[in-house]
Amino acid sequence: MPEQARITSVEAVEAFRADLLVYLDKARNVVDEVGEEVSRTRAWLQDDRARHWAQQVKRRTIQLQERQQELFTAQLGKRQNIQGELVAVRRAKQSQEEAETKVKAVKQWLRDYPVEVEPLARHADLLRHSLVTDMGKAVALLSQTIEALHAYAAVKPPVADVPTPAPATETPPLT
Fold this sequence. Notes:
The protein is mostly helical.
């Protein structure tokens, strides 16, 4: 058994620690982005899309009423060709129905959002917690390990007290 451990690469442990710190920084940023995106999407649904499609229903309902009025006027005028007005009414009706469908879809998403999206967002929160606590502890442990290895490498092996041989005296040969 050798008297001293052979530490060949404390630098590899230091490089791993540095890489881990870079990874943790990037991973935390991504997880934070996910959380922010979940919040932005919910706000977008609640504030932007709900208001937008409610306004579109009103606007398109007015347009439908105007097209229907134009058709009614054409019919009262006993015009022979009212195809253009019929097409305009049909398109306005489809447009208004599309807006109503979008309002329903936004309402459905707002109802389903806490059930469908937020549980997944909680997984991201758990990952963030693990990155901060568990991986933070790992970085601290690596720092302590690096310090211990540097201290260990700096220790000199004990010098053994080896008796020095006595000078040889010449003895006459035996005959």
